[in-house]
Each structure stands twice: as structure tokens, then as C-alpha cells.
């Protein structure tokens, strides 16, 4: 039987699991495959893999094994100061992936998707440095992904914002962000990723 004392612990555990499951790298993998393979089948897989490697795999290797000395537990960059040096590296990696997609004549929606990823992570950096504000990258990436999927497929994907709200709760529950930081992240992801995708796709 769950007691009142156990409830906060249970909610925190659920929040942590949701945060880990829906972290930015996993979301990037999902949206890349959805747009790449979903729109173009197997031919789109190669371009999706480029986005995955340079926007998810390489950044995670850098965060954990190079900058983080193998500390997998802090892969979410809980310390805002660490983000100051990490975010430019991620931005540069995504830019290389974007250049490769362009060089290999990827379809416009794939290029637009990767450009949207680059624009989002690049926009987070000045907010982190100049405003000294720990905006939620989880919320930004997830909201931006649903904004792109709604354009790539149909507006029904906007229902996914219910999940963005749930993820925002999770980030607050594990005390990684405030409510305002998750809301700001979701707004930024929607405007930047959604806007860039709309312009380029």
C-alpha cells in the first residue's frame, strides 16, 4: 500500500524515468526517422541517419565521454555552466550534419528538419549565457519536433503538446527546471524549429 510519504518519491521516480526516456537525443532519433523514413521510405533512412549521428550520437559522446569524463548520470547537463561550453560543440556538430545532407542532395524536409535542430540549439546558447537562464532543452526539442511533424504530416500531431506538458511536469518533478523554464523551452522550440521548418521545407 502506497502511503502519503511514498507519493513524492513515486512521482519523482516517474519524472526521472520520463525525463530519461524522452531526453533530447531520443527525441531527435524519433523525429529524424519519422520524417526521413516516414516521408521517403528506405531512401530517406540515410539522410535520417546523418541527422541522428551529428545531432544526437556525436553530441552525446562529447557530453558523456569527452567533456563529462564518462559521467553518464549527468548527460542531461543539469549544471547550467556546463552548457556554456557544450552547446557550441553541439551546434557545430549539427551544422556539419546539415552540410552533409545538403552535399548529398537530401530532400528539402530533411534539410529543413536538421536546420531547425541547429537553429533551436543555437538559440538556447545566448539564453543560457547572456540571460543566465537554464531553459529546458527537453521541452524545446520535444515541442519543436511536434511542430515539425504537424507540418510534415497533418495538424493532428499537435496533440503531442499534451506530452510536452507531461514532460515539462517531469522536469519540474525531478527539480531540474522551474515551470517557467519548461514553458519557455516549449515556446522557443515551437517558434524556432517550427518556423525554420516552415521556411525551408
TrEMBL record:
Q: Which domain of life is it from?
A: Bacteria
Transmembrane parts of this sequence: 45-65, 86-104, 110-131, 152-170, 182-200
- Record's keyword annotation contains Transmembrane: yes
* Keyword annotations from UniProtKB, A to Z: Membrane, Transmembrane, Transmembrane helix
Q: Which residues form a coiled coil?
A: none
This protein's name: Phosphatase PAP2 family protein
Amino acid at each position: 500500500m502506497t502511503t502519503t510519504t511514498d507519493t513524492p518519491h513515486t512521482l519523482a521516480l516517474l519524472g526521472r524515468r520520463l525525463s530519461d526516456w524522452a531526453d533530447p537525443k531520443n527525441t531527435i532519433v524519433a523525429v529524424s526517422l519519422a520524417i526521413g523514413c516516414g516521408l521517403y521510405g528506405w531512401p530517406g533512412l540515410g539522410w535520417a541517419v546523418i541527422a541522428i549521428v551529428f545531432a544526437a550520437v556525436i553530441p552525446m559522446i562529447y557530453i558523456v565521454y569527452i567533456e563529462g569524463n564518462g559521467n553518464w548520470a549527468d548527460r542531461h547537463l543539469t549544471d547550467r555552466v556546463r552548457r556554456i561550453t557544450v552547446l557550441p560543440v553541439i551546434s557545430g556538430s549539427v551544422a556539419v550534419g546539415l552540410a552533409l545532407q545538403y552535399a548529398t542532395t537530401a530532400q528539402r524536409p530533411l534539410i529543413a528538419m536538421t536546420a531547425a535542430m541547429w537553429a533551436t540549439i543555437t538559440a538556447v546558447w545566448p539564453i543560457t549565457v547572456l540571460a543566465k537562464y537554464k531553459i529546458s532543452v527537453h521541452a524545446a526539442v520535444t515541442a519543436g519536433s511536434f511542430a515539425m511533424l504537424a507540418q510534415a504530416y497533418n495538424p493532428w500531431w499537435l496533440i503531442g503538446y499534451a506530452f510536452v506538458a507531461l514532460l515539462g511536469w517531469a522536469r519540474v518533478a525531478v527539480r531540474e527546471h522551474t515551470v517557467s523554464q519548461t514553458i519557455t523551452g516549449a515556446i522557443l522550440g515551437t517558434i524556432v524549429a517550427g518556423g525554420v521548418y516552415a521556411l525551408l521545407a
